[in-house]
Design goal:
- The model has no long low-confidence stretch (mean pLDDT 91).
- 39% of the residues are buried.
- Helices cover 43% and strands 25% of the residues.
- Helix 1 packs across helix 4.
- The protein has 209 residues and is an alpha/beta fold.
- It has a 7-stranded mixed beta sheet with strand order 3-2-1-4-5-7-6, sandwiched between helices.
- The chain is globular and about 40 Å long.
Length: 209
């Protein structure tokens, strides 16, 4: 954990440019989908917010966002950008995806984008997401499927050399199976094509936990 935290802190200053130049096309499609699906929402939690890219995209369309990241430097940059654009309805803070400091049933929607494949225990994170969601809440479980094809597997291995270690190299099918086995019912699933396919899932709780 300390090694990974050190990496994300050190990478924070380059994070926005990396997304823009490496995953920009995929993220533009993601922004469109999210804006359509969260407009009018009262309370949203975004986990692993990074420098706040997704939260800034949707903040004018929703009432309030709590956005957390485990890396203090990511949060510092997000707060700096927030001050520049006066996005007052976002609360950025350092937080652990696997140990959320929020009460049960706090949020209408939880966004977990580009994070679950990085976690050693993604099931623990899903349990926490389920806990903080309202009974009829929606989880946006958006993840790069590093194991989908030969190209994605090769790119994933190359990225690992730079510090981007994917602990879970799911295919789209195996990821969907994992989500369903973790107490969620998939309501929407779409694949956003790119160098590594991004699967866009909206799921509700099955209340089996």
């Amino acid at each position: 954990m300390n090694k990974e935290l050190k990496f994300w802190n050190s990478f924070s200053g380059r994070y926005d440019d990396f997304i823009k130049y490496t995953l920009g096309t995929t993220y533009q499609k993601l922004f469109v989908k999210l804006r359509e699906d969260v407009t009018g929402t009262e309370n949203i939690l975004e986990i692993a917010t990074g420098t706040g890219l997704l939260s800034f995209e949707i903040c004018k369309l929703v009432h309030h966002i709590n956005a957390i990241d485990i890396a203090p430097e990511m949060i510092r940059i997000a707060q700096k950008k927030q001050a520049e654009i006066h996005a007052l309805n976002i609360d950025f803070e350092v937080g652990d995806t696997s140990s959320l400091q929020f009460r049960d049933g706090s949020f209408d929607k939880v966004i977990a984008s580009n994070v679950l494949h990085l976690l050693a225990d993604p099931d623990e994170a899903l349990s926490e997401i389920s806990r903080v969601l309202k009974p009829e809440g929606k989880a946006f479980l958006i993840t790069f499927c590093h194991g989908e094809n030969l190209r994605s597997r090769l790119i994933s291995r190359f990225m690992e050399l730079s510090g981007f270690k994917a602990r879970n190299r799911w295919t789209v099918k195996s990821y969907a199976t994992f989500i369903q086995a973790s107490g969620f019912e998939i309501q929407t699933m779409e694949i956003l094509p790119g160098k590594i396919p991004l699967v866009y899932i909206i799921a509700g709780k099955t209340n089996i936990r």
